[in-house]
């Protein structure tokens, strides 16, 4: 049922509209009937209303005043106006404020029933679209949360302020990072044999099973699987309230015992705790927790066997984290993550270190050039062929130290490497390409951000969604072009990035209140 509010200063009409029409059969329930627009506005401030059926002329505030209030406050309320007047100006104002329908008195009840029947169909579609959008937003939030915990445990987030800002963006409770936490590395025994001979449903399906079984909440502790690299599972446990360290560890151990027993019973696989570190809070964990793909006690042979995955997956992700630090101007974060990665890589062979360092600095220079940072061209004086000739990791690190010093001087002079900068770059790209068939993914790729994260960041920084911003730019340009009679409406449609003329008319009318043709007619003297 959709809630309906009836507003008319004549009690006879109010009673008639309330009692003569079988609103329930049409899918509506009457919330209230009021005698003035002023009362109606006060009512919708405190109550949920889907539709308002209102007289246009009343003592204190009119039906158009109600429509204006609904329009200006962007409320999800449909307004239907009843009027005994045929003035064009009234109808024109009603269109401006997005009035759904304008009916003349005396009321034709067949027409009224027809209008509200169609309106219900429209509301049903809007409701379905809203539910779909809410589901998409929830999926978006889930992906952002997943990425947050990965970044927290692999070096992508270290700064406390940035951690809290990201949490606010996602909607995570702040107390999730304030109290005791642990990072745990689990190893799946005989992983390849189990995957290929026992499980037989594919690696992705097994990964989902582990995610479900290693994530949950128990006795005030939240735990989750953050990432998996073949037989190694990386999870974290967070207390959501202040708790004694011994109690926290006891509860964490209990959770781990349950996980090990459950996976053994349900999946028939043995999981072993390889490493467990406890921290006072997640800020400490972000700075200190191990980011090692394979525990260091494993033999060099194991590292070499895993290095193809390490190189193709983890190193690519870590290079992205380093570029994030570059955009934030965080030289300390860059150097810390780099040092930890080199410590691991040198256990394998020096050639892998060379490859990583060259690709990393190429990426850093490209990023800084893209951002228009002055002085970055000086970094090119370093000869990468030198790295190829180096024989030891120590030589490479000495070379890198010179680059870090240069890079630090450049970053100190830079002021606008921030999320605000990324949004400005995104807006510039939209202004330059609004006439093309551009998408959220296209724009996010231009500024090297994940499209999911960019969507939330854009809304937070600008107060509007990417789609709404793009529509606004296109509509403003369309209105500008409509001032010039040399352009046909279908030509303007194409010039502002729309291929479907009917869709262009629909968007324009929704945004401006009239069709492009009506808008142009208004401009004529």
What is the strand and helix layout of this fold?
Elements lengths: L1 E6 L3 H9 L3 H4 L1 E7 L2 H10 L4 E5 L7 H10 L5 E6 L4 H9 L4 E4 L4 H46 L5 H11 L10 E8 L2 H9 L3 H11 L2 E3 L2 E9 L2 E8 L5 H23 L3 E9 L2 H7 L11 H29 L2 H15 L4 H21 L13 H6 L3 H21 L5 H15 L6 H7 L4 H12 L3 H17 L6 H7 L5 H12 L3 H8 L2
Parallel strand pairs: 1-2, 1-3, 3-4, 4-5
Antiparallel strand pairs: 6-9, 6-10, 7-8, 8-9
Helix pairs in contact: 3-4, 6-7, 12-13, 12-14, 20-22
Structure description:
This protein has 23 helices and ten strands. Helices cover 61% and strands 12% of the residues. Helix 3 runs parallel beside helix 4, helix 12 packs parallel to helix 14 and helix 20 crosses helix 22. About 4% of the residues have low confidence. The protein is globular, with a radius of gyration of 31 Å. The strands form two sheets. A five-stranded parallel beta sheet has the order 2-1-3-4-5, sandwiched between helices. The protein has a five-stranded antiparallel beta sheet with strand order 7-8-9-6-10, with helices on both faces. The longest helix is centred in the first third of the chain and has 46 residues. Strand 4, helix 5 and strand 5 form a beta-alpha-beta unit. The two termini are 47 Å apart. By secondary structure, the chain is of the alpha/beta class.
């Amino acid at each position: 049922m959709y809630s309906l509010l009836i507003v008319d200063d004549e009690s006879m009409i109010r009673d008639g509209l309330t009692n003569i029409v079988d609103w329930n059969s049409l899918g509506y329930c009457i919330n209230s009937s009021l005698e003035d627009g002023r009362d109606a506005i006060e009512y919708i401030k405190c109550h949920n209303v889907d539709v308002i059926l209102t007289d246009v002329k009343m003592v204190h505030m009119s039906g158009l005043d109600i429509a204006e209030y609904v329009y200006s406050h962007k409320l999800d309320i449909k307004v239907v106006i009843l009027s005994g007047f045929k003035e064009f100006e009234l109808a024109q104002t009603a269109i401006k404020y997005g009035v759904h329908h304008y009916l003349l008195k005396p009321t034709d009840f067949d027409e009224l029933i027809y209008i509200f029947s169609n309106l219900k169909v429209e509301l049903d579609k809007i409701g379905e679209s809203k539910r779909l959008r809410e589901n998409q937003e929830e999926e978006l939030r889930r992906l952002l949360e997943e990425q947050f915990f990965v970044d927290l445990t692999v070096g992508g987030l270290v700064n406390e302020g940035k951690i809290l800002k990201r949490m606010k963006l996602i909607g995570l409770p702040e107390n999730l990072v304030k109290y005791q936490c642990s990072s745990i590395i689990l190893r799946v025994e005989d992983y390849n044999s189990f995957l290929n001979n026992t499980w037989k449903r594919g690696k992705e399906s097994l990964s989902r099973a582990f995610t479900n079984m290693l994530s949950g909440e128990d006795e005030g502790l939240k735990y989750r699987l953050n990432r998996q690299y073949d037989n190694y599972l990386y999870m974290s446990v967070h207390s959501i309230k202040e708790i004694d360290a011994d109690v926290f560890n006891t509860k964490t151990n209990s959770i781990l015992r349950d996980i090990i027993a459950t996976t053994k019973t349900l999946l028939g696989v043995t999981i072993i705790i390889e490493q467990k570190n406890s921290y006072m809070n997640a800020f400490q964990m972000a700075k200190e927790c191990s980011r090692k793909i394979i525990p260091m006690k494993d033999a060099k042979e194991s590292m070499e066997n895993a290095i193809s995955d390490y190189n193709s997956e983890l190193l690519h992700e870590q290079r992205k984290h380093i570029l994030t630090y570059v955009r934030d101007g965080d030289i300390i974060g860059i150097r810390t993550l780099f040092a930890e990665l080199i410590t691991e890589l040198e256990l394998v062979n020096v050639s892998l270190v060379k490859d990583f360092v060259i690709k990393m600095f190429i990426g850093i220079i490209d990023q800084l050039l893209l951002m228009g940072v002055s002085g970055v061209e000086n970094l090119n004086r370093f000869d990468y062929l030198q790295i190829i000739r180096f024989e030891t990791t120590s030589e490479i690190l000495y070379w890198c130290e010179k680059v870090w010093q240069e890079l630090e001087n450049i970053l100190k002079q830079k002021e606008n490497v921030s999320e605000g900068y990324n949004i400005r770059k995104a807006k510039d790209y939209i202004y330059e390409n609004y006439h093309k068939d551009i998408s959220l993914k296209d724009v996010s790729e231009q500024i090297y951000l994940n499209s999911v994260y960019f969507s939330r960041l854009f809304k937070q920084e600008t107060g509007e969604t990417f789609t709404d911003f793009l529509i606004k730019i296109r509509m403003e340009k369309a209105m500008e072009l409509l001032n010039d009679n040399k352009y046909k409406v279908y030509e303007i449609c194409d010039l502002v990035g729309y291929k479907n003329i009917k869709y262009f008319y629909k968007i324009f009318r929704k945004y401006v209140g009239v069709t492009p043709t009506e808008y142009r007619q208004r401009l004529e003297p």
